[in-house]
Amino acid sequence: MKKCLLFVAAALCLGMNCSCGKNTVNDIQSVQETTAAQVLDNTNIDVDLTQMSSTMIYSTVSNMMLNPNVYDRQKIKIRGTYRPFHDETTGKDYNILIIPDATACCEQGMEFSLAGEHKFPDDYPDEGQYITVTGVFSSYKEDGLTYVELSDASMVVDQA
């Protein structure tokens, strides 16, 4: 429950853009070089939210949260802002993609885990940067609750 509330809190803090990360341009470029080809490969994407209107994105992501079994093992591509999250109770770190809605009042967060070995914070963008993530939709249980994530994901940091 704490994790769920903290994800909501992280989404609400989106307006507080923190540019005090330790990442360098070279760190970000190395992640981009290794994952750009994967993200830009639009073949076999089951749900491409980057091609939808903000209303459709909000509706689709809400449906994913409410009916995760419908999207299980589908390849999803989505754009949003990066938000790292550390759960003090479990000691675990999470990577969250914050997905804005049309009115910027009801943002949603989706966890993702990159394929391969990656070190935080070196291999991740600064908090609040726009990224595009492509990954396999899956769900898992933790502390009796079901969570969704994009697993085996690739990430491209937007240049603009």
Overall outline: globular
List segments where confidence is low: pLDDT < 50 over at least 5 consecutive residues.
4-40
Query: N-to-C SSE series?
Result: HHEHHEEEEE
Largest sheet: 5 strands, mixed, barrel
Counting H and I runs of at least 4 residues, what is the number of helices? 4
As a whole number of angstroms, the C-alpha radius of gyration is: 15 Å
Write a structural description.
- The chain is α/β, with parallel strands linked by helices and 160 residues long.
- It is 28% helix and 34% strand.
- Strands 2-3-4-6-5 form a five-stranded mixed beta barrel.
- A hairpin with a 2-residue loop joins strand 5 and strand 6.
- The chain is globular and about 35 Å long.
- About 23% of the residues have low confidence.
